[in-house]
Amino acid sequence: MKSKKSTYEIAVNTLQLEAQAILNLIPNVNEDFKRAVEIIAEIQGRVIVTGVGKSAIIAQKIVATFNSTGTPAIFMHAGDAVHGDLGMIQKDDVVICISKSGNTPEIKVLAPLLKQSGNLLIGMVGQLQSDLANLADLILNTSVEKEACPHNLAPTTSTTAQLAMGDALAICLLETRNFNEDDFARYHPGGSLGKRLYLKVAELALKNKRPEIQATASVKDVILEISQNRLGAVVILEGTKVLGIITDGDIRRMLEKHTNLLNISAKDIMTLNPKQVDKNMLAFDALQIMKENSITQLLVMDQDKYFGIIHLHDLLQEGII
Question: Is 122 within 8 Å of 149 (Cβ atoms)?
Fold first, then answer.
């Protein structure tokens, strides 16, 4: 039978339930949570995160967040653990076992084995009266009042709580380790986030041609230089000194005002004092300058020498925008 509630009502109710579940976790940031952060921050080994079903999926995400923020971590499926994967756990590792009930068959078998290994066992669990909670050295309480599922069956609110608790743990560890932007860039060299933190304008400028022309050049030569280099602009020089810039927009505006182009040279239509950036500036910072000044090109300088040009399209291609 079709629900009498509108799609809007169902969606809003789901988000409200899950948001409240996260807020309800705040009192659970207790001494066990603090101790978990302190121990993980000091271990010589890795964090092994395990679970089964939807909790296993959350475990994989937490592992990914740990690894990208400086905490070495490995995912171990609870079902596979008792069939050989327990061998991945080394003596200096800490294990986080995630389970809503703490009483699934896989967890009931796995938890005692983890205790026997001598590794610290952290239980991220939604039932405090469970096998996992009873065996865990530390408990991260992710109890929820009800699932967002109207039948209170499909893991929704409970997995959101697990995910949020994992994020809280990861960010505490990040802060504890003073994990900074340079560290983040080192772990994300291929992604757009990492590029924001390490990609410099010099690397972009070197991929482009270097459009330039002398101040006395004719309008025809200016147009040819802009067209051949496909950057929508040309830098105007006097010897090696930068005087200004001419963009394709400047050319259009000039053609609207003048019909006789014979006596017009580059210096007559150039824009003086074009925006310049040092070659060592981060591409992301250069993007902010483009946005603030509503421009699509920037001159790149090596101290007082013209180094090249970057275009807004260069930043688009690198995924900076």
Answer: no
